[in-house]
Amino acid sequence: MKQALVIGGGPAGLMAAGELARAGLSVVVAEQMPTAGRKFLMAGKSGLNLTMDAPQDQLLAQYGGLGPLDAAVRGFDSAAVKEWAQGLGQDVFTGSTGRVFPVTMKASPLLRAWLGDLTALGVDIRTRWRWTGWGEGDGFTFATPDGAVSLFPDVCVLALGGASWARLGSDGKWADILTGRGIAMQPFAPSNAGLSVPWSHAMERVFGQPVKNVAIHGDGQIFRGEFVISRHGLEGGGIYALSPLVRRGVELRLDLLPDWPLEKVVQRLARPQGKTSLTNHVRKAMRLDPARLALLQEFGRPFPADLARLVKNLPLRHGGLRPLDEAISTVGGVATGALDAGLMLRDWPGVFVAGEMVDWDAPTGGYLITGCLASGLWAGHHAAAFARSGRV
Ligand SMILES: Cc1cc2nc3c(=O)[nH]c(=O)nc-3n(C[C@H](O)[C@H](O)[C@H](O)COP(=O)(O)OP(=O)(O)OC[C@H]3O[C@@H](n4cnc5c(N)ncnc54)[C@H](O)[C@@H]3O)c2cc1C
Fold first, then answer.
1. When comparing pLDDT for 390 and 38, which is higher?
2. pTM (2 decimals)?
């Protein structure tokens, strides 16, 4: 029986493990944390968004260049993700924006069923096994509760995750091991991350408040989504989508009244101010809620003569993306050019790579988990074929 090793027990690794076991290989999953799937469980905390209910081309268009992972997502699209979850006994539903969730919203029932399925397939999950590199005879070496252990599998799938939320295991430390082996890597950077903003004291009264009905413009694109003013800056879906632009240094502008044409704002502001303060006049004339008014004051003071234009074109001054470890996902990792069409490392035959550890990007909306499941399945499938081919 051929031996397969999967390193990393997140969604990509578990998917690869199942595929390898179904192909008749003996499978060990090595996971450094005390339990598998910790980031997956965290993803389920605010509603596990498994995929986006969209036609295949629309789905693929959301990934900023998948390279060799493109075929993987074509082979395991949103319809397949839904079917897979249902196959594990988890009913799913599609929300109004097309996002697909398990009916329970959580990740734990799905993960439990999934791990049960893998156990039934004979997959051996070894936790507290941290991959440390390779040793004599090119074995994969691990720090385990019983000391250092080396494994010599016929094929291996690396599914080590990105470099955010290190406390859940996704610490990116594996990058040094692969760099040492000469594998082409891209530096990690935050994606789907909040924005740091060094607020003035005046903003403290709106910390925690949602910002609705605004548009953000950048690089000819318009983003409309809600976000929250936090102590450290701006957070939430409407901000996460901006990450690729922020990484490229694109200037961002807020439109605080995206549903009002400029003329309407001009007319409203031209109403007599009377004895009210300028702030109250501005608030009443444009019906601005406290959060939007605070943003106008923070980014717009001192107000220029042409205030109407500023309201619709307010510079969003920020200090860059929030730190890497806070990001929902990370870009960087194994360069797609280092992989062949089956996600095998060109310079390390028999070693395949899947999930967020590969350099690809996608917004929130279920695209991340879909990409991880699809690439895990694809890598597992090709690793099994490699083992069967006798090339090992
Ligand atoms: C708060 C939050 C909410 C999210 N919500 C969603 C969502 O709703 N929808 C969505 O699509 N995505 C969501 N994501 C993103 C999604 O969870 C990740 O993209 C996904 O888990 C990545 O899967 P992966 O298998 O590639 O890596 P991971 O899930 O990170 O798993 C990698 C595993 O490898 C292990 N590992 C690392 N190094 C070693 C080593 N040296 N030895 C042994 N094991 C090692 C880690 O411990 C980890 O368990 C969310 C992320 C966060 C943080």
1. 38
2. 0.96
